[in-house]
């Protein structure tokens, strides 16, 4: 008898686990406490902007094999947008410089020998920073590995903050090294950037929910699991605010919630459970314009641009919406939000006007600040040691979430990989 797989949490980890198991003969029931699935990777209609926006921006790389497998299963590969080649436009506001990083398609890093394709003013010995990151272990921070120079300031530090959502002076070099090993060290074919063309829900959530329905899986939104019972080393009952769900000896459970929720659910039954307990925020600002900007050059080809030398880090253009992402945003938590938005808008004008047919207006039509205060665990060496594995002492329960020990920082790839790890920890079969 196959039994039922109960997945608690409908974020990316929970959805990935459900998609992996659906169609295998195991019945899947996904419990999501909110009104919709997706967690930190979803879209919604914002009343103030009167349009649909994402609660954050996520840039994928072609190396994200677990994400692309998920998109392939759910039929959502054609919902992505990107340049189709490993190019990244940048602007340095502090030094008034612009360039497009153009990586070699193959594994040999020929781009570093061609000044028009590499980071301006970089010196070849600075590439040693990448080797140091790849070899880093334990307590080593990113800053410990970075050599001073343009390559660090204009690429490695921005890349580190985006990947880890943690500043480089405290960020784990081992975690960033894992990202480098799976992307830049493999060559440009692993670094082609992609993002959701219409919205995160349209790419990552809605197709998955539709797929699960065709596979006779059940997605229960507004279904909060408030507790569970354990007997003889296994979960026997799940409790909701309305009723209780008795589990058979064949049923299994994946807890794919946030770390604090998982700890609250499981600590009464799993002595010594340790999870990350320090978190970093992400700041996103969405600016609506009366007229749709018309981008030029590599900004038009990519649909996004990296910004250095200001508060702004990445800017994405979708129709008449300019969206800005600022990672490791705890450092701005005490700043006045409206003043921060004005600063970022002025940075946008400096960054974008030269690559738009018409300059941006003095002020946007409307704006929305979205501050994810506990967006990810702080990717420090100390917090990395607190990440549990997927398997637990309870024989029918496994953990999933970007905060579990995936070997990666809290990225979409890490979240989805954790779902696959949880499925494997429970010994469930995955359809080929």
TrEMBL record:
Q: Which domain of life is it from?
A: Bacteria
Tell me the InterPro entries matching this sequence: Amino_oxidase, FAD/NAD-bd_sf, SQase_HpnE, Zeta_carotene_desat/Oxidored
Q: Which residues form the Amine oxidase domain?
A: 12-426
Q: Which PANTHER family match?
A: BLR3003 PROTEIN (PTHR42923:SF47), PROTOPORPHYRINOGEN OXIDASE (PTHR42923)
User: Sorted alphabetically, which NCBIfam families does this protein's record hold?
Assistant: HpnE (TIGR03467)
Q: What is this protein called?
A: NAD(P)-binding protein
Q: Which organism is it from?
A: Acetobacter ghanensis
Kindly list the organism's lineage: Bacteria, Pseudomonadati, Pseudomonadota, Alphaproteobacteria, Acetobacterales
